[in-house]
Design goal:
heterodimer; B: alpha+beta; eleven-stranded mixed beta sheet; 29% helix
């Protein structure tokens, strides 16, 4: 089956990347921030497998540590967004009425902004830094989850098992968290997988624009930015971080697609 | 069918945007024009308001001033035929009689008087008001004589005579578009597209003779690599500075560029906030100076396009004091100095710093890279540097407000040593002057005051020698390097003379040889 294969391939890519990120301090051949101005822009060699950047730092080591930055931004952005999304979405879906109207109009307003533009404005005001990037991405990120949760809750609100739980005197909190949320997990999981990929790309874009990770934090986006000026004389500075971003996002999308096919089929 | 105004509107709009796609009447490169790439768009061409380097450089091609520094930073008469010091506070200039503005009006003393008075008018908010504060009165003496009366003797006055002259009655910018600006220079303004380009046309009746070039196109290309690629493509003929040093070998190898480097006077320094409890200690500033490996940064990051600086004035300057010692890279001495200043390293070579400082810089790639090198080098002597990058406006605003620990900036085009007054006198805190580090030294204040009042060159040389020795000892700013100018141009451009401050004034004498391929 093609679906299974892509899910498997995605899981393998992600597991490998997460493993490399977790083991970065053990396997990185050099420190990601140690400079050696004499050894700048070196091509691939035994000493530096992927070469060195303008400040003589080992590119392989920076990519390995950069995976940690991407993983951190990707997961924490999504975790925070999901948390806010679940809270807002379930309040809105469960209680309905004016609360639903109010919350959904807030979501509409936020969704009307181009996400990356709002994130740029936000980090430009707060100043660069990974914490600000995560906050900026959550600012818009939660709206998708809120919509999703609300829609799913509306769909199951009148189902018999929910009615039964309510009839038995379950408090709204108990009904939402114990009876409703477990039914939403598959949909949330799929959306979150794509969300991580989107967050990693957004972090890359912001760092590329100089609004993300502060130097010398090794972030793939800022590595792309630093290498851009040397595109013609040392293309390896941009090729390898670019490939790293591509692989990661590919892995996440494969997993997301695979999960959707499996979970949604099962649900039908 | 109902009439739908919206669809009609959409239709019209589509037609209008189609028309916009048609070739514009003025081509990118009119015949005989030279295309110069600039990093930032000139903000004001009106000489009374031009402050950023690119504005000043373009403005000098459109406007003339009484005096103009030559390639050796010596003042030469331009609109002035002759000039003399009548007494210690009075300067008299005689104007050339054959000068006309681009619209044919003759340039007379009345225009000069108007230009200076409008710049001095508090309502004008001209940045020239500061430098002109010693001027008490500007008087026309007949049609071609102009007299300046000063409040006190002011040795740097000739620098004030470099203000470009506009026709009497020219309003301040903002009220009218700058396209209508009229000067008396070698070129007139033909087109002004903000953020895009400035096109200048040769002035056929220029009093020094018609320029050989038919005109100049200044294109704003903010990105260094795009500038290099446009040059390769042949859509840019001339780039000065702001080129990634590592790109120069590529440009030499892959294009027909002629690449030349020239000693410059632009002085890069590390600014220090002297109100900071740690940085106000002299030993700490000395330690930072010894911790920075200028040589390695110049050799590798700047590819030799700079020379280690001992102070603001470069060795070519008449007042340069050569006995001022340099600050060699010496991390051991830096550590000893920090120990003796009362900041021992809590854990030797371990990760804990002696203290933390923040370093502000702009988001330009090269600036960020240099910041990272500083961070590493200061880290080796136990000073943790937190690098903060900002876009130019925010950065410069913070620096002027004194909201910083350390920053780096360059001083472009120091001609008269009186520039020290603006940088270090205790009355020169922003916005009055540029003493952004809040340096206070009563003895230096006295030296700087007498330096601007004495008119004898030898006496001034002695005064500024003492100033330079004091500053080298006190280090209210930490000298880094003097930047070299790089000129990349297509072959066949003749007659361009590089200026140490990066001025492009000699383009009025440049020509394109006929055999040039384009």
């Amino acid at each position: 089956m093609g679906d299974k294969l892509s899910l498997r391939a995605g899981v393998i890519i992600l597991a490998a990347l997460l493993g490399l990120a977790a083991l970065a301090p053990l396997i990185a051949p050099h420190s990601p921030t140690e400079q050696n101005l004499e050894q700048d822009l070196l091509p691939s060699s035994g000493e530096h497998l992927l070469g060195t950047d303008k400040l003589g730092r080992d590119i392989l080591s920076r990519i390995l540590y950069g995976a940690r930055v991407s993983a951190l931004v990707g997961t924490s952005t999504v975790a925070l967004s999901v948390l806010i999304g679940i809270t807002i979405g379930s309040l809105s879906g469960y209680f309905g009425g004016w609360l639903d109207h109010l919350l959904m109009r807030v979501v509409d307003i936020l969704m009307a902004f181009p996400g990356i533009l709002l994130a740029i404005a936000f980090t430009a005001v707060l100043g660069p830094g990974l914490d600000h990037v995560i906050l900026a991405l959550c600012l818009i990120g939660w709206t998708g989850y809120a919509r999703l949760v609300r829609a799913e809750i509306l769909a199951i609100r009148e189902r018999e098992f929910i009615q039964a739980a309510r009839a038995l005197g379950g408090s709204p909190g108990r009904v939402i968290f114990v009876h409703m949320l477990p039914n939403l997990l598959p949909a949330l999981l799929i959306q979150a997988t794509f969300g991580v990929a989107a967050a990693i790309i957004a972090e890359g874009s912001l760092s590329f624009l100089g609004l993300g990770a502060e130097p010398p934090t090794p972030s793939w986006g800022s590595m792309l930015n630093e290498g851009r000026q040397f595109l013609l004389v040392a293309p390896h500075l941009t090729t390898f971080p670019g490939l790293a971003i591509m692989l990661t996002v590919l892995g996440l999308n494969l997993v997301g697609d695979g999960l959707r096919d499996r979970l949604e089929k099962r649900g039908k | 069918m109902k009439f739908k105004p919206l669809s009609l509107f959409l239709f019209l709009w589509a037609g209008a945007s189609l028309a916009a796609c048609l070739p514009s009447p003025r081509p990118d490169r009119p015949r005989g024009y030279l295309v110069v790439a600039l990093e930032s768009h000139p903000t004001h061409l009106d000489p009374r308001y031009a402050t950023d380097a690119d504005s000043v450089r373009v403005s000098a091609l459109v406007f003339n001033s009484l005096l103009r520094p030559d390639a050796h930073s010596r003042f030469q008469p331009e609109l002035a035929e002759s000039w003399q010091l009548v007494d210690t506070t009075t300067y008299l200039f005689r104007l050339r009689k054959n000068v006309t503005f681009h619209d044919g009006r003759p340039l007379t003393a009345e225009d000069v008087r108007y230009t200076y008075e409008s710049a001095l008018d508090p309502a004008s908010r001209s940045p020239w008001r500061g430098p002109l504060q010693t001027v008490k009165a500007v008087e026309a003496v007949g049609a071609y004589g102009i007299r300046f009366r000063l409040r006190a003797p002011y040795a740097a006055f000739p620098e004030s005579a470099t203000l470009g002259i506009v026709p009497a009655g020219t309003p301040a910018p903002g009220s009218v578009s700058e396209t209508g600006l009229i000067g008396s220079g070698a070129f007139s303004v033909e087109e002004l597209s903000p953020g895009e380009r400035v096109v200048l046309k040769a002035n056929p009746s220029y009093w020094q003779g018609r320029p050989a070039l038919a005109g100049l196109v200044f294109r704003t290309i903010p990105d260094a690599i795009v500038r290099a690629l446009e040059f390769k493509k042949g859509t840019v003929d001339f780039i000065q500075n702001d080129i990634e040093p590592d790109m120069l070998p590529w440009l030499k190898g892959n294009t027909d560029a002629s690449v030349t480097t020239h000693q410059g006077t632009t002085f890069q320094y590390l600014g220090v906030n002297l109100d900071h409890p740690v940085l106000k200690i002299r030993e700490v500033r000395r330690a930072i100076a010894h911790a920075i490996d200028r040589e390695a940064i110049i050799r590798h990051l700047l590819k030799g396009l700079a020379t280690r600086a001992t102070g603001l004035l470069s060795p070519e300057h008449w007042a340069y004091e050569s006995s001022v010692p340099g600050l060699p890279h010496d991390p051991e001495q830096a550590k000893t100095l920090l120990d003796s200043a009362g900041f021992p390293d809590p854990d030797g070579d371990g990760p804990l710093p002696r203290f933390k400082l923040s370093y502000k810089t702009t988001t330009l790639d090269l600036r960020r890279r240099i910041a990272e090198a500083f961070k590493e080098q200061l880290g080796r002597v136990g000073i943790e540097l937190e690098v903060r990058t900002y876009e130019w406006g925010t950065f410069y605003g913070d620096i002027r407000k004194g909201n910083f620990h350390l920053y780096s900036l360059a001083w472009v085009g120091a001609i008269d040593p009186d520039v020290y007054f603006s940088l270090f006198h205790s009355e020169s805190f922003p916005p009055q002057g540029n003493n952004r580090g809040r340096y206070r030294n009563a003895e230096l204040d006295r030296l700087l005051e007498s330096g601007r009042r004495r008119l004898d060159l030898e006496e001034r040389r002695r005064i500024y020698s003492r100033v330079q020795k004091t500053l080298a000892l006190e280090l209210p700013i930490i000298p880094l390097w003097w930047v070299k100018n790089v000129v990349v141009m297509k072959p066949g451009i003749e007659g361009f003379v590089p200026y140490p401050d990066g001025h492009l004034i000699s383009l009025k004498k440049a020509s394109l040889s006929p055999g040039r391929s384009s």
